[in-house]
Amino acid sequence: MNSSKSILITGSAGFIGSHLMDRLIDEGGRLVGIDNFCDFYSPSIKKDNSKKHQQSTNCKIYDLDLLDYERLEEIFIEHKFTHIVHLAAMAGVRPSLENPRLYDTVNNHTTINLLELSKKYAIEKFVFASSSSVYGSRSSVPFREDDDISKPISPYAATKAAGEAMVHAMTHASQFSSVCLRFFTVYGARQRPDLAIHKFSELISTGKAIPVYGDGSFRRDFTYIDDILDGISKAIDFKTKFEIFNLGESRTYTVNELIKLLEEKLEKKAIISYQDKVVGDVPVTCADITKAKSLLGYNPQTHLSEGLDKFVKWFQDKNKILS
Question: How far apart are CA 146 and CA 144, in angstroms?
Fold first, then answer.
């Protein structure tokens, strides 16, 4: 990383954010991470993710709610950011159905705060973490960046689509450039415990039933964390005024296929409890990555079976330490 860059990463103690911090710390440069260590899942997990960053000499970590505009502005003034990677958000389709006002407040207002300060303090590049959920419920695949996203089917998806629109609007009205990255089902070491691969591995390992919503035929485009990090790194340096890219692996697996693979890797049979479909869940996600390959040079290298080998090793090593 160019040492002249001063990069702010929001959500720096989360799954993707902590991995990105690791990568950028190793590349040199000046880094600031912001995370509010909320209790959406155990704050202790995020504190562990952040330990290396707390000890780094070229990195500063703030425990801060991004809704605190005045304190956030003080940090902008102090560190003179050139680049922002905005990963922080209330995540998850199903929880957003339970508390849509929280998702609106956190996801939309924090994005606006960051964009307003980015304009005010003349940053160079704003990278926004969006989601494949913006595509809504559709059967035609793969999803292309120019597909209509005007019909999201969960509050979480709606906040991500709104975030993209706000990034575009503020980029148009400012000197900075921006990239929106639509992530497709990211997995790997440190994955949130509520996400399928981590949750299923825990349930299989402890002999508990896996809740599968529907008949297990929903398909997902699973993307390994290292491939996502490559895409983010390329987006930070990509020269553009405004652009949107899909970051996926561009192949799909059903939930039933995923469970079968995990059974093989964990060497243990799963107990499956099929349940009613959940409103807001989409039947399929699949990224068309033609644009990202052509313009970003994005080229995912890790197929699901290989990625699960790496995940399961991390998962089993973690459980050995905890036991």
Answer: 5
State the Cα–Cα distance between residues 173 and 247, nearest whole angstrom.
26
Q: Which tokens in the block code for residue 59?
A: 């990195």
Q: How far is CA 278 from CA 101, 163, 215, 234, 281, in A?
A: 19, 24, 12, 35, 6
Residue 123: HSE in the Cβ half-sphere, 13 Å Cα cutoff = 28
Q: Give the tens place of pLDDT for each residue, 244-267.
A: 999 999 999 999 999 999 999 999
Rounded Cα–Cα distance for residues 125 and 314 (Å): 33
Residue 103 annotated among the catalytic residues of the structure: no
User: Cis omega before residue 155 (within 30°)?
Assistant: no
Catalytic residue among 62, 103, 135, 156: 156
d(CA 275, CA 215): 8
- Provide the greatest CA pair distance for the chain: 56
Q: Which two tokens stand for residue 308?
A: 């699960």
With H, G, I as helix, E, B as strand and everything else as coil, classify residue 61: strand
Q: Looking up tokens 């035929």, which residue turns up? A: 217
Which pair of tokens denotes residue 4? 């002249």
Domain ranges within the chain, ordered by starting residue: 6-188+222-250+286-301
CATH number for domain 6-188+222-250+286-301, candidates 3.40.50.720, 3.50.50.60, 3.30.565.10, 3.20.70.20 = 3.40.50.720
Residue 95 clears pLDDT 70, i.e. is over it: yes
Residues 51, 124, 299, 166, CA torsion sign: positive
